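Problem 12. The chain below contains 371 residues. Write out its predicted structure in token notation.
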Amino acid sequence: MSDPVVERSDPSITRQITRMNDGRWALIMGNGYNSSSEKAVLLIQYLDQGKELLKITADNTGNNGNGLSAPRLVDLNGDKVPDVAYAGDLRGNLWKFDLSSATAGSWKVSLSGSPLYAAMDGAGTPARQPITAAPIYLAHPNGGLMVVFGTGRTLSDADRSSTQTQTVYGVYDNTAINVKPGTTLGAVSLSASADAAVSDGRASLVQQTIGVSTVGTTTDPASAVYSVSSTPVDYGASPPKRGWYLDLPVPRERVTENLSWFDGDLIDIRSAIPAIGTDPNVETCDATTAAGQSYLTTVNAVNGNAPKSQIYAYSAGDGGTTTGSRVQTGLDLRLRDNVKERPYAAPGMQKPPGRNLLGKVTLRPTWRQLQ
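Solution.
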């Protein structure tokens, strides 16, 4: 149902096809949607020897409309073998799976079987927010991992008209990671602290917001640039914060495409408002009753803050002090995998440049001591 989950270092590589810590090769995926049991299950399909199918059940409730989405696999010790996997389900649970043992029978759902986070909207009567795209991760400055994911689904015609508010979450997984020196297989062990799972929902997270008015324009007359807040997230507070969240402001907007890395701690979030009436990628004689819209938002994965440098366009009317970190476009950010993203420029520029990176530190290739 989703795109392959590719690697940051090489987007032509997916760790979903990988050698496991038991030395065997396998394909790792979620069980998907509309199964007969409606459970959320991680599937490990061996590709060698007996080609067995190993199942690790996260949500065993059954008959509740659930199913596991594509997993993000993480190598914790640099041996190119995944040690943990993160995946969301249709009930809004973000699960963590421990695959670090050299014995397949020891692989399990982490955090004593609880999800790392359960996504629920901020309505008066909170409702679960479905997760259908793979999360993304970065190393956290305090140790552990920062895991970012978006919510939303477009699996049926009824989904297209849903107005439930969807959200992007950044959750700090503070699980201690122990690497055993001098070993290869089974080199990692996880010792989760008692409070590793975020059980109090948004109470432990800091809210970030998206501006309702434009702060700039691009050379494309159909696109506009918006701002994202930069509220600090204090991971050293008492009690400590565990991350951030960003409610998507436009009705029917949702995240159904895998998040991706941009530069440094910055990540790209592609969200969209689906068209109602017909699929815009399929030839049809039926008219579309409501057009679709797409957005590309770039934020810091660790705290959800806007980038410190200008990403998409020069701002208007404020001397260039406001950072535009969200751009609204048509539905051509992604069309049958031919167009991944477009460059944007400030008005007056004849040729749009690529998005500005934060700058690189050039290391001195050689040195000589002077006396």
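Discussion. The two ends are 65 Å apart (CA to CA). Students who got a different answer should revisit the alignment rule from Section 12.3.
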